[in-house]
Amino acid sequence: MNIGKIMIKTTIAAILLLSLIPLHAFAGMRVSPAIIRTNLLPGGSYNTLISVQNTSKEKTEYLKIYLESNEQNPEGKWKYTKNKGGVMSMISWAGVAPDTLTILPGEKADITMKIKLPKNVSGDFRVAIMVEQDQSKGPPPPPIELDDVDDIRLGKYREKDGLKKMGYTLIKYMRVAIPVCIRAQPPSKAAEEIMPEVKIGKVKIGVAQEGQGAFKAFVLVENKGTFDVQAKGLCSILHPVNRSALKMAELSGGNITIMPKSKRQVEFIFSDALPVGNYIASANLKFNTRGFKKVAGKRAETRFAIDDNMAKKLLNLATSGSPGGDTPFVPLLVDPEHIKLSPRGTRIKPLKLTVTNPTNKTLNVRSIFKSASQSKKSKPSAKIIPDRFSIKPGKSERIRVEIKPAGKGPVYGRLLFAVKGMGGSRPAEVPVIILPKGVKLKPSGSIADFEALSVKDGKSVKISGKLKNTGNAHLDDISAEISIKDFLDNPVKKNRASVSRRVLFPAEKTRLFSEFPIADLKDDIYKAVFSVKSKGAKTISESFRFKVDSKSDKVVRLVE
């Protein structure tokens, strides 16, 4: 690892994008670098320049420059304060000059930051350079309603004590944070691997945010060391007796960075609901110090139960807005959850599946194979052995499925498992995809039937659309995102979309949906952009426009 020299003077070429801010709120501005990160010897000094350019053609910018400590709370949100901050804050070691700037339209100005590290320090230290508009000078910008003031620090508006009030309004102004991270490491330890010092808590189970999945497992991780730690991992839902894996989810957000001497809650989001039954949640996490390869593994487990009310709630979250979304599945778990084969020719080896009863009562099961073929001539024949069976509480049954294709083309269908006495429930289903080698198909799809609705007593906007498989091949492992952009095509918000069905056969449809806080969408016209990905298929993108008008009887409506 390279350690910086005693004096380092550098500028990182990056641009802080301020496009999320309405252009009428303040003149355009460009700040470079957007993030400062470097290595430095304990006792060393660091000087750098931050360039600020007024890209406006008309407005003179009056700016205040100062430092704040920056930390993350367990939910991963940044907290800025002028106080000394935690033990990993550099605010008492750093300074900026000048503390005020006046920049004419089109001109640039530089800010100098100086840091002097103490001799006996080691770790990743942080501070933030704040660039704030001084609204006491120059013409005042348009006011906004008091309830609309955001307490977001990076490139958005912030309520501040002492701002001039105009009735029930506050003045909008800009406040930008430039994060600075310095790694201090003695030369004697520069080549050594630094092992992460972490402690994890118990696994807990909760419902997912609506539009983001069905349920989640979460763990509180404490970084007890002085260096940044990166986390990745996998959580499995296990059978309570034989510990077979029933469902799995990767760490939400990918690699998560946990700052030194802090705690962070990490989550695993499961898209599909669980039926009534008893389970084990097993979280396996791997940690490494940022920049180093050595890994420390940690595991935590918990037993939990899903009752009738929770099963229904999870199902509503997983299938909200889709036909039959409030109808529960039968309490069965089938492994594998879907089958995909690529045989040579038309001879297919028997399929083997395990059906598990996670409940505390015996279940009588009946199974069938339902072909997705629209033509009788191309429908395959299927034999399930046994097709009727009983499973005792906490036990499993092995079955064999023999499928004979009607021709040389693909076989699409679903294995369905119903339970006697649960006629009002939806069968458990396993998609079956048999695509002979050499068969070439073209997957494609379209999105239509868009909706934008005000929900939750006007607190959220629900965006949805229907994905249709318009090709002659299946769409597999479907995932989707919904982005909202303003009238200038600047990004406002992006959510992972819930998908009612993750495997679509030709001509089938599924609903995509997500919810957005209406507080993030001021009165304006927006564009909702759907982006759908599927294995082996091109990304499917569609968009539509909608309007938010808080003064209208219909707060959210589509725009032609």
Overview of the molecule:
It is a single chain. This protein has 560 residues and is mostly beta strands. Strands 3, 5, 6, 8, 10 and 13 form a six-stranded mixed sheet that branches. It starts with 6 loop residues before the first strand and ends with a strand. Residues 1-27 and 143-172 have low confidence and may be disordered.
Throw out a few tags for this protein.
40 strands, mainly beta, 49% strand, globular, single chain, 560 residues, 1 helix, six-stranded mixed beta sheet
Number of strand segments: 40
Roughly what fraction of the amino acids lie in strands? over 45%
| Oligomeric description of these chains | single chain
Give the end-to-end Cα distance, rounded to a whole number of Å: 57 Å
Helix-strand makeup class: mainly beta
Number of H/I helices: 1
User: How much is the average pLDDT?
Assistant: 81
Gyration radius from CA atoms, angstroms: 28 Å
Q: Roughly what percent helix?
A: under 10%
Outline the low-pLDDT stretches. 1-27, 143-172
Biggest sheet record: 6 strands, mixed
Shape: globular
Quick take:
By secondary structure, the chain is mainly β. It has 1 helix and 40 strands.
Summarize the topology:
Blueprint: E1 7-10, E2 29-32, E3 36-40, E4 45-54, E5 61-72, E6 78-81, E7 94-97, E8 100-103, E9 108-116, E10 123-133, E11 143-145, E12 169-171, E13 175-184, E14 198-200, E15 204-207, E16 215-223, E17 229-238, E18 245-250, E19 256-258, E20 262-270, E21 277-289, E22 296-306, H1 308-319, E23 333-335, E24 339-341, E25 351-356, E26 363-371, E27 381-385, E28 388-391, E29 396-404, E30 411-419, E31 428-434, E32 445-455, E33 460-469, E34 479-485, E35 491-496, E36 498-499, E37 509-517, E38 524-533, E39 540-548, E40 556-559
